[in-house]
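Hi Y.,

Following your request, here is the sequence exactly as I used it, all 313 residues.
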Amino acid sequence: MKEIGHTGIHVGPLSFGASSLGGVFHSIRENDGIEAVYAAIDGGMNFIDVSPYYGHYKAETVLGKALREIPREKYRISTKVGRYGKDGVNTWDYSARRAKESVYESMERLGIDYIDLINVHDIEFQASLPGGLQKVVDETLPALVELRSEGVVGHVGITDLQLENLKWVIERVPEGTVESVLNFCHYCLNDNKLEDFFDFFESHGVGIINASPLSMGLLSERGVPAWHPAPKALVEACQKAVEHCKSKNYPIEKLAIQYSVSNPRIATTLFSSANPANVRKNLAWSKEPIDWQLVAEVKEIIGAQQRVSWKNS
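Below is the corresponding structure, written out as tokens. Let me know if you'd prefer a different format.
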């Protein structure tokens, strides 16, 4: 078990991301999603990450149903503020007032009276709104820090695809304001840019949470969903890597999970599935030794597309 920064939250190398419970990637059967949560807890996971944005409140609602049957001491909950949606329309609101309201609404949906880690969700969206990222510094984070001082939430973090945004905010808030970062698609087989920021985050006592070891489907035999924002050349390179792993009878999903949990400087890696069998399979894979020669071959196949990223959407 590793500690997320200095939060006192100790987690295993693989943790449960609940975005799939909202049908973010494809439609799900609610009972399967609930069973997936049970499989995660039964498999030893104690950290669950969710957001009101996932499925426009559906993920928190389904997760809340699962949590009714799980003793509170068995899990730590991470959720978010800033991104929302209704009737299929995405919305953003990083105001202090909405942030505080959102925390209490999330607790109600989840059926809990305390959130272990509250995050400002995908701060790059505020960068294009009035006030820019400075609003996260001046308004969103102070509101969450106030809730932390009141004991409503335990710890405060920020999330984003763009690592530079996370750094920018941390440099402009009082030390200890941001206790963790959650970054996705930057510590996986096709992109390890997160490594460049380890020293910075650690020097500020900020814990590192990695997410999306399959790079939102790039590193999967199923392939990317139609909405995936990756450029075509990257998609094609990853497809070649998928086929290479298949020829070795070593699913790229297995290699991707193993690679993402391999770095000791990352507290935990989040993966999401509403399929209990997949949860158990990923847990088993994460405990098996990795084939580093195959990692090298995959990285060579991806070649010039390594570290090619995209804008969040």
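The mean pLDDT is 96.

Thanks again,
Q.
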